[in-house]
Design a protein that fits this description.
Length: 789
């Protein structure tokens, strides 16, 4: 069914392109008659036709038939103008002059605030990611794309999956929010990626530091907030097709999206498909658990995968009411490095080197289905927002059916399955008091039901219910000084279900006899948690410098795996055991952010200090289960500090220089690993980049060359049994340009990228495969084509 849908989509896309070749276009520029400067953001509206001017004041209306047309040109602060033109082969470039309107300008000065100004006034330390950044820096997964931002890194799982890390904390300590709904999957696992299609995303806000005040339990370290796309303009239709190819893992990918709006109704849609083979590493052998595995043609065997995503949304908008319902589905199948799954591959009959594109055992399959509705209602001074979401996450792990200990040979390959259903409801009311107080109050409810299957056991079935209420006030002391204060209370309940092995184990009794019993791995248990979060911060704007300080207390409820796991995790080659006596994590953090920005340069620093009263940690013990070391969840006090530096300048024409650095210091101050750091602590790292804009050359328009040079220090601060990681330097290069293939079409965006230019062998300390002596991917050449219409 998916392939039929994909073929149909391509048919209509190609048909539309063919029709466009026999049509005309209208080009022009909009200029201020008072200053003779171009006007950015002016709208050109005609019957079923629409355009917006660029930063240079230019616009283009494509795919129109010959004839006479009437357009109205408007922009806030200028008087509207209506023109009549004829579209034919002799059409000339238009030059439209608009007169300033003093009345409109006065209204903007009193009521209007740009997004940049709003961001400065908020004391929350955050980073806004634009669509331009996402397009320019796109990598194989969303989090790898975002890892260029200071303070953000990833736990990579092969070439196509990754999960977010903010200032050294990841897993369920970082909340990922999409369209106002927290993304809920099996994110507790080291080898579980993020099931979100990165194409079609326009804006992301990354909150560094505790954000439990608004987002609840799992936002103790930060938030990746994927914000809803803007509502399309009236009588508009647009779309894009993205094509991607890479040589390191022979990846082929395509994504196509459209959006349109009449008057009040609008819709969007997108499909994405990616197919890739085993990726190559700059080594020909892997040393894991004292076994040396030879690699065929440097391929990390069985790391191929496929991904098919689709989403469709329908919306309705008026002056005071907006509602959009989105349905999405992400489906993926990925292989696991064959030599890392319990070492069974040494005796396997599977020929893993027969093809670099097949997906053999062990592998996992995941399907994430999501329905969300976002509704906003404007009532006088109130803005009410309702977010509803349903998510179904089905994940299966398959491996060769081999007996382990007392377990006989299973009848199939399904080692584990997890099926998680999540219902979410968010209600939020934002209103103003006396024009100085901007108050937001809300309630969050979430219910999870997680079922398990397969012949292997790690976590029990469970249900989880949480409810939280919050309120905060942003008070404008004066136009340049703002205070933000808020409080939240959360209550949660987890009900775990009992589980017995499906096979009997041999037990030696004290009297010398032997019993055969079905061991109980989990018991029926109900646990209740409640906690308070609070935050207070100040933002002060002094000319070109913004000062922010924020102090907050947040918490995180323990997860089912931390409370009740009792089984072998073959991906990590260890036995994991939960602890029902765990308390919620409590974190206290102080954030400071100073940003100085002028026309030619900018500089910023963001230090933080963080203390965990009871950090939950998987501690290796001296005990063993059937030759596997037992790891038990425990709680310690943890002190953390660090921050980010950033600087940029464009004092040389056409050259943009950027530099950033990040560092996190972590120390356990109690417990069995007192004096050590915590797992996956990123080392000191710096990123230097240069972007040079060339003049148009031949048929290449606006070419620009980008060089990124990352320097990472060695990481000697580890917690056993982690290994130390050497430092490294990696150079990446990109060439971006536009090509006008047809005069009647928008230009084709082309991006050539060369990652790891010198094929450097290095280990990323926050990579999942680093634990098993697998280096990062080798040299990779990619080409990405984007055609908008």
């Amino acid at each position: 069914m998916f392939y039929k849908t994909l073929s149909l989509w391509f048919f209509f896309s190609l048909s539309a392109m063919a029709i466009a070749q026999n049509s005309f276009q209208i080009k022009g520029s909009v200029i201020s008659n008072n200053t003779l400067q171009p006007i950015e953001g002016a709208t050109i509206n005609g019957k079923n036709l629409h355009a917006i001017t660029s930063a240079s004041g230019r616009f283009t209306i494509n795919a129109i038939v010959e004839g006479n047309y009437s357009f109205t040109i408007s922009h806030i602060g200028y008087a509207s103008k209506t023109i009549n033109i004829k579209a034919d082969s002799s059409s000339k470039v238009l030059k439209i002059l608009l007169e300033e309107s003093t009345t409109k300008l006065s209204e903007i000065e009193v009521n209007g605030k740009t997004k940049k100004r709003v961001h400065k006034e908020s004391p929350v330390v955050s980073h806004v990611v634009t669509k331009e950044f996402l397009t320019t820096n796109r990598e194989n997964s969303l989090m790898q794309t975002l890892s260029k931002i200071p303070g953000v890194s990833t736990i990579k799982i092969g070439s196509g999956q990754s999960k977010p890390v903010i200032r050294g904390l990841g897993f369920n300590r970082v909340a990922v929010v999409q369209n106002g709904i927290k993304h809920e999957a099996q994110q507790w696992g080291n080898d579980h990626g993020l099931e979100i299609d990165q194409y079609g995303i326009e804006n992301i806000q990354i909150v560094k530091g505790p954000a439990s005040l608004v987002y609840g339990s799992d936002a103790i370290a930060g938030v990746v907030d994927i914000q809803p796309n803007k509502v399309p303009l009236i009588n508009s239709f647009s779309g894009e097709v993205n094509v991607l190819g890479e040589n390191n893992n022979d990846l082929l990918g395509i994504s196509a999206g459209i959006q349109a709006r009449k008057e009040k109704w609008f819709y969007r849609g997108r499909i994405t498909y990616r197919d890739y083979g085993d990726y190559k590493v700059p080594t020909d052998k892997i040393n894991y658990e004292n076994y040396i595995f030879e690699l065929h043609d440097n391929n990390l065997r069985n790391t191929a995968g496929r991904e098919a995503n689709a989403n469709l949304s329908l919306g309705y908008v008026t002056d005071k009411f907006t509602s959009e319902t989105t349905i999405s589905n992400v489906n993926a199948k990925n292989g696991f490095f064959a030599n890392a799954h319990g070492l069974e591959v040494r005796i396997s009959r599977i020929d893993y080197d027969q093809s670099n594109r097949d997906i053999d055992l062990p592998y996992h399959k995941v399907n994430h289905f999501k329905i969300t509705n976002n509704t906003s209602i404007a009532l006088n001074k109130h803005s009410i927002n309702l977010d509803f979401g349903f998510q179904n996450n089905l994940r299966e792990e398959h491996s060769e059916p081999i007996p382990h200990g007392y377990m006989p040979t299973p009848s199939n390959s399904k080692e584990r399955s997890f099926q998680k259903n999540t219902l979410t409801l968010n209600v939020k009311d934002a209103f103003t008091l006396n024009d100085d107080h901007h108050i937001v109050a809300g309630i969050n409810l979430e219910f999870q039901d997680n079922n398990i299957g397969g012949w292997g056991f790690l976590i029990p079935e469970y249900t989880r219910f949480t409810i939280g209420a919050f309120a905060f006030d942003q008070y404008e002391i004066n136009s340049d000084l703002h205070l933000l204060a808020g409080i939240r209370y959360d209550y949660g309940q987890i009900n775990s279900k009992s589980y017995f092995d499906w096979y009997p184990s041999t037990i030696n009794n004290a009297n010398g006899s032997t019993s055969y019993i079905y061991l109980q791995r989990a018991q029926d248990k109900t646990l209740n948690f409640g906690n308070v979060s609070a935050s207070v911060g100040l933002s002060y704007i002094l000319n070109n410098t913004t000062f922010k300080i924020n102090a907050g207390k947040s918490f995180r409820m323990p997860l089912a795996n931390e409370l009740a796991s009792d089984g072998v995790n073959y991906h990590m080659y260890r036995y994991e055991k939960g602890n029902l006596d765990l308390d919620p994590e409590e974190s206290y953090q102080l954030d400071i952010d100073i940003d100085h920005t002028t026309k030619n340069y900018s500089f910023g620093i963001s230090p933080f200090v963080n203390f965990f009263e009871n950090f939950i940690y998987l501690n290796p013990t001296s005990n063993y289960y059937e030759t596997l070391q037992i790891y038990e969840y425990t709680q310690n006090k943890v002190f953390r500090a660090g921050g980010e530096l950033r600087a940029s300048t464009n004092i040389i024409n056409n050259l943009q220089l950027n530099a950033s650095a990040e560092y996190v210091y972590s120390r356990q101050t109690s417990g069995p690993k007192e004096g050590f750091t915590i797992p996956f602590s990123p080392p000191l790292s710096g990123l230097f980049s240069a972007n040079y804009q060339f003049k148009d050359f031949l048929f290449f328009k606006q070419p620009q060359l980008i060089a990124d040079y990352r320097i990472t220090a060695k990481q000697n601060e580890i917690v056993p049994p982690e290994e130390k990681t050497d430092g490294y330097q990696v150079l990446n290069m990109s060439l971006l340009t536009q090509i006008e293939l047809f005069k009647t079409k928008r230009p084709l965006d082309v991006k050539f990228k060369l990652n790891n230019v010198f094929d450097t062998k290095y280990f990323d300390h926050t990579s999942f495969y680093r634990l098993i002596d697998v280096p990062e991917a080798g040299r990779n050449i990619s080409i990405a084509l984007t055609q908008t219409f």
